[in-house]
């Protein structure tokens, strides 16, 4: 794996797992009032487009990272709506 | 511009502007208790790596999208710390 690929892998991993602490915090506190619903909708839509993009260019790293990111953010979105 | 590039452009635009509503909400409400500090740190680090990646592969869309995303998230992070 070239250095540049390692850099991309680290970036993808960080911007994917970053949403896990938010998911855990929202689950624990049962509160998401300060989290923007518009952000969650817009971000989920964008990540879905990245997922389509990854499928079209047949890039497994893009597919895997955005699939997980989409799952995490859809879960945060559902908790946000539930606790609203 | 090929269809696939348009898809990537839309994805990049959405996952960049998505953070603007969160920034405005946090600025207006002066409250970010429900937003995870660990998420913000991890996400900012990951976006910074994407920025480096974009510079290395000399891709202006990756550079532009991640530069803006980093700015928005660093602002949200600073407001989060200020109102904590």
Q: Your description of this structure?
A:
Two copies of one chain form a homodimer. Helices cover 83% and strands 0% of the residues of chain A. Chain A is mainly alpha-helical and 84 residues long. The longest helix of chain A has 24 residues. Chain A has a single domain, classed as Monooxygenase (Up-down Bundle), CATH 1.20.1280.290. Chain A is built from four helices and no strands. The termini of chain A are far apart. The interface between A and B is large, with 39 and 39 residues.
List keywords for this structure.
Monooxygenase; mainly alpha; homodimer; 4 helices; transmembrane (chains A, B); 84 residues; PQ-loop_rpt (chains A, B); SemiSWEET (chains A, B); SemiSWEET transporter (chains A, B); 0% strand
Largest interface: A-B, 39 and 39 residues
Show unreliable segments of chain A.
none
Q: Structurally, how many domains make up the residues of chain A?
A: 1
The helicity of chain A comes to over 70%
- The beta-strand count of chain A equals 0
Global mean pLDDT of chain A? 94
Q: Based on the coordinates given, report the CATH architecture of chain A.
A: Up-down Bundle
CATH class of chain A: Mainly Alpha
CA distance, first residue to last residue of chain A? 45 Å
The main sheet of chain A comes to: none
Gyration radius from CA atoms of chain A, angstroms: 14 Å
CATH topology-level name of chain A? Monooxygenase
Instruction: Classify the oligomer.
Output: homodimer
General form of chain A? elongated
Question: Please, how many helices of chain A?
Answer: 4
Secondary-structure element sequence of chain A? Answer: HHHH
Alpha-beta content class of chain A: mainly alpha
β-sheet strand percentage of chain A? under 5%
């Amino acid at each position: 794996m070239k250095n540049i690929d390692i850099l991309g892998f680290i970036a993808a991993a960080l911007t994917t797992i970053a949403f896990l602490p938010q998911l855990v915090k929202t689950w624990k506190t049962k509160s998401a009032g300060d989290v923007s619903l518009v952000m969650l909708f817009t971000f989920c839509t964008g990540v879905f487009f990245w997922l389509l993009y990854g499928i079209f260019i047949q890039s497994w790293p893009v597919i895997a990272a955005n699939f997980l990111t989409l799952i995490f953010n859809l879960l945060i979105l559902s908790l946000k709506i539930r606790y609203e």
